[in-house]
Amino acid sequence: MYTWGRFNIFQKGIRSRFSLFAKINLLIIILFIPILIMYTYSNNVTYDVVSKELQVSNTKQLTFLSSQIDSRINQMMDFSLILSRDPNVRAFNGLNLWQDKYDQMQTRYIIQEKMTLQTGVTDLWPTRYAVYSQQNKEVIANYTRDTGYDEAYLKKNMSGQWTYGDHSTDSKDAMQSFYWFYTDSLAQPGMLTGSNLVIEASFSHENIQNMLDTYKAGGQGDPFFYHKGNTPILNRTADKQLSGDLIRYLDTHSLEDTTQDIVELGGKNYLVSTVKSTYLDWHLVDVVPLYQILEPISLSQNLFYACMILLLVVGISASILLYRNVQYPIQKLIKGLRRVQQGDYSVRLHSNNQNEFSFLFHRFNDMSHQIQDLIENVFQEKIRAREATLKQLQAQINPHFLYNCLGYIINMAQMKDEQAVVSMAHNLSAYYRYTTRMERETSSLQEEINLLINYLDIQKLRNGRIEYHIDIPEHMLAQSVPRLMLQPMVENSVIHGIGKSYTSGEIRITGESANGFGKIYIDDDGPGLTPEQYEALNQEMLEPLQEEVGCGLWNTYQRMIHTFGNHSYLLFGPSPLGGFRTEIVWEIPSEEADKERGTTQADG
What positions does the domain HAMP occupy (predicted)? Predict the structure, then answer.
């Protein structure tokens, strides 16, 4: 008791250590969680702030570019208005001007020079102007024209708004120019009276491309000029695949004066900003790859998570090593001690590592082996003492059994029943021949069954009510079992079952083997016992031998444990026949189990 008390103290100490180890791991996990939450939160805040600032900055830049384009267009419109009030231009549309050829040439030269000077203000935004005299059917332009004055052309384009293309071609795929026509007519806008002066201002799509190229050079976007139904104006280094995908997206959405969306194209996110031009009714569109701009933040986040995963893997690896080299050996040692405490002294511990635990395992194995030897020696002595008691009791009982059998023979002889005399003498001879042979402690199950047949035939001759049935699988008959393992159980059924009833008389002996265990059931149809009596009888088999317990049953149980191990047992309970059942279960040794499987397969 003192030794096991020290073991319990040691076990509690181990549990407290492992409890502390678990608490430390839990504390590390608890510390990890706030770090992950705070980092994720701060990273998301940074991501949102950068994204919003990028959106605001992109909108401002795009609005500034749109204002530059509108400013240049406004300058062209102002110049057209000033030009229409120029005396030379008004003289060009006069009635009596062309009487002097020199003055006519001089006026044309002055007008062209003014338009040329206005065009040459900047190379980024070249402009084209033309002055139409409806009165004289003449036109003066600062660029080379394919055609002269065309009345139908003027009437078709007098909308008062900037238009894309001069409507001289039906192709919408060709890159065209923006046009604006101004007249000093006091009539309804878009109407010509026949003597109007018309100023045409236009610029090429290349002007827009120049502005887009300049804008792109200072940022990370990919801008273009867009109007639904017309060919968009791209910058000269535009990503045509990306622009085409975005244009298809814009064609399916309505655009406000200023819009900003995050669009997924090709599995990647882009910031799409649009600003509407005041004069042209086109939208200036810029697409910025968010995934590239925010990539450093994402990379930093991924590196942090990778480091956390690496730390977690290292921690798990350290825990596994700690478990394999410390915790697992200690658990094995504790389990081994528990099994020893429960009475299983055959347990042995093995270690593949040469460390302190291998030394502890070796000493533990020595201790278990010594205890097992001591227990077996004591157990053998107890078995011998019980067997001596059993033999003494049998010596006292057997003469009475023999006298009854001899009396039966005398009676049958007097009655001239020779068959009964021969049968009794034969069975009695075989019975005593087997029981008096003590040179072996074990025998085959077939020999035990033959003994039961002899015994039951003797009892059947004496008591005609007895009927027995034996059904044992053939592959079990060669198994080795302790001698007289079954006879005390059958005798118990004959004496205490059938012998105490005037109506019962059936005894059934059946067997089976499965999962490495052999089982034999001995049933009778006698009065049986109450559930409490069954429970008490089963409990007495697990306790030391007492005076009121049958020596034969207890001794058989102890000999089975000694022969087959702790997994073998006797179990008493109610029988399907209505009486008493004895269940005998033993673990089949591995070599006999292999032979039995081979016999079963051969029979199959």
Answer: 324-376
Please, are residues 283 and 255 in contact by the beta-carbon 8 Å criterion?
yes
Q: What is the dihedral of CA 336, 341, 346, 350, to 10 degrees?
A: 10
Stretch 36-58: mean pLDDT:
78
304 near 296, Cβ under 8 Å? no
CA distance 263 to 209: 24
Q: Checking DSSP bridges between strand 197-204 and strand 177-183, what pairing results, if any?
A: antiparallel
Does 228 score more than 80 pLDDT?
yes
Q: What is the pLDDT of residue 182?
A: 87
The secondary structure of residue 545, as a DSSP letter, is: -
Residue 587 φ/ψ, nearest 5 degrees: -85, 125
Predicted pLDDT of residue 581: 94
- The structure tokens 């099994």 sit at 339
Strands 163-164 and 258-265: unpaired
CB atoms within 10 A of CB 380: 11
Residue type, 179: Y
Q: Minimum mean pLDDT among 4-13, 86-95, 277-286, 537-546: which range?
A: 4-13
Cα 159 to chain centroid distance, Å, stands at 68
Q: Are 293 and 220 in contact (CB under 8 A)?
A: yes
Sheet strands side by side (includes 224-226): 233-234, 224-226, 283-289, 268-276, 258-265
pLDDT tens-digit series, residues 373-395? 787 777 777 666 666 555 544 44
For residues 576 and 595, the answer to whether their CB atoms sit within 8 Å is no
**Parallel/antiparallel/unpaired status of strands 467-471 and 506-514:** parallel
CA distance 393 to 385: 12
Q: Say how far apart CA 507 and CA 498 lie, in whole Å.
A: 9
φ/ψ of residue 259, rounded to 5: -135, 160
The residue type found at 533 is: Q
CA distance 257 to 281: 10
Structure tokens at 157: 């384009």
Summarised one tens digit per residue, pLDDT across range 465-502 is 889 999 999 989 989 888 888 888 888 888 888 887 77
